[in-house]
Amino acid sequence: MALAWLPACTHAHPKLTATLYGNTAAEHHASTRAIYMAAKAQLPAALADTTWTAALEQGEGAGDKPAAIILDVDETVLDNSPYQVQGVQGGPEYPDGWDAWCKMESAEPVAGAVEFTRFAASQGVTVFYVTNRDSSLESCTHANLVAAGFPMAEGVDVVLTKNERPEWTGDKTTRRAFVAEDYRIVMLFGDQLGDFTGEDEATTNPSERDAVVDAHAQRWGSQWFVLPNPLYGGWDSVTYGHDFGLSEDEKNARRLRSMHGPR
User: Fold this and answer.
1) Counting CB atoms within 10 angstroms of each CB, which of 1, 70, 144, 217 has the fewest?
2) Do 213 and 250 belong to one domain?
3) Which domain holds residue 261?
4) Rounded to an integer, what is the distance from CA 102 to the centroid of its chain?
5) Gap between the terminal Cα atoms of the chain
6) Which pLDDT tens digit goes with each residue over 126-153?
7) Is residue 124 part of a domain?
8) Which residue pairs, CB below 8 angstroms and at least 24 apart, start in 205-209?
9) Residue 95 domain-assigned (yes or no)
10) What's 191's DSSP letter?
11) 10 lies in a domain?
12) Do 47 and 97 belong together in one domain?
């Protein structure tokens, strides 16, 4: 059956190829699987070294604490590209329809994520999911994660959502600090710089974001694992000053100005 919003003729949506890549590309699936396999290979060393911690928020004396990992949810462990497909086909685009999509509890796992998290849990690691989905979506997010096969520790709230507590804003620093109070955080996973450090909050251009990455060069691929997300993120919005009120034409003009050709 044809979707009601599917246009009769094709006019390329700005995110058509990015959505196509995230939704269908074998290379995308291979890259996420490779990232999780690399983390799996690194995990035994992380557990054996009691001085090993991935969180900037971790205090002193964490060596005696049980190990934990923190993963973002969207585009890190759950694939929301079917929701993005609706947008490029003329249907609802974020934020429209987002809550309804989450409540469907049908997002499938990102390739490699279930296998890695189950392995980590089998090694005694508590797996936390720190997401900027609103707290009103915690129940359906938890149910989707369970349905997708992700491990859930018993007796512990491991799905930490935005606004679940007054201090839990879109900056995930306070939630990482909350986990660090009782656990030694050995690995972080995400698709945005904010999944690793709050320093990204103050960046105003791509060069400043690069500087954040460079400042933590030794952590990438050993303690910090970033998943590819061509669909959305700070890498895009920083080019137009995170001013979401701008028209698409103005956003595109600023995007073009932010890029450089041959030097």
Assistant:
1) 1
2) no
3) 233-263
4) 15
5) 50
6) 999 999 999 999 999 999 999 999 999 9
7) yes
8) 205/238, 205/239, 205/258, 206/235, 206/238, 206/239, 206/258, 208/238, 209/234, 209/235, 209/238
9) yes
10) S
11) no
12) yes
Helix (H, G, I), strand (E, B) or coil at 168: coil
Residue 111 and residue 205 in one domain: yes
DSSP strand E in 3-125: where?
67-71, 78-79, 108-109
Domain count, the chain: 2
Strands 108-109 and 78-79: what pairing?
antiparallel
Same domain, 144 and 72: yes
CA distance 225 to 75: 13
CATH number of the domain that residue 28 is part of: 3.40.50.1000
Q: What is the pLDDT of residue 7?
A: 52
Query: What pLDDT score was predicted for residue 4?
Result: 54
Rounded Cα gap, residues 248 and 152, in angstroms: 41
pTM of the model: 0.95
Judge residue 128's burial from the number of C-beta atoms within 10 Å of its C-beta, 0-12 exposed, 13-18 middle, 19 or more buried.
buried
Same domain membership, residue 115 and residue 57 = yes
Residues of the chain with pLDDT under 50: 1-2, 8-9
Q: How confident is the model at residue 14, as a pLDDT?
A: 87
